[in-house]
Amino acid sequence: MRILGLSKDNGYPFMTGSELTKFNLRYYRWLSPKGVKDIRDYIVKKGTLLLYKSGTTDGGILGNVFIADEKLDGCCLSDHVIRIVFNDVRMAYWAFAFFRSKGAKKMLLRLATGTMIPFITPERIAETLIPSPDENFERIVSLIEKYVDFNSRSKFLEEEAISMVEAEIEKWNKH
Length: 175
Hints:
By secondary structure, this protein is an alpha+beta fold.
């Protein structure tokens, strides 16, 4: 009897929160819809704000904020990532810019609780006030939209370049 492993053909790509910090996002693990109860809770869509909820407060990944791009669209993320969904992707971009600011980063670290491994709860994030859009809204949203698009495109292009180099190396090894 042959046991088939999970792959993109029969599962969802899965990433840990720490893998979000890496530029070259590659899928190594897959989650099966049959093996994970409520798998839809783990899947993120483009435009979802992602906040790493646990880690150290001394320069670790606690409070790091990401925004799901095309590379992460349809990917499953671990429970260590809080998903913040907005009805309007433009508000997600506005909130992303806010949470990436130095002041908001300090605020997020102050929201952490726990002693050994500090963590931020979704409830505390839900109580966080985000500044209302102002006269800079359109410009900030436009810049973040470009950032998301360029960042996403660069990930796919890097993946393509790596595949090309690997294929060339494979050719060399056959000779």
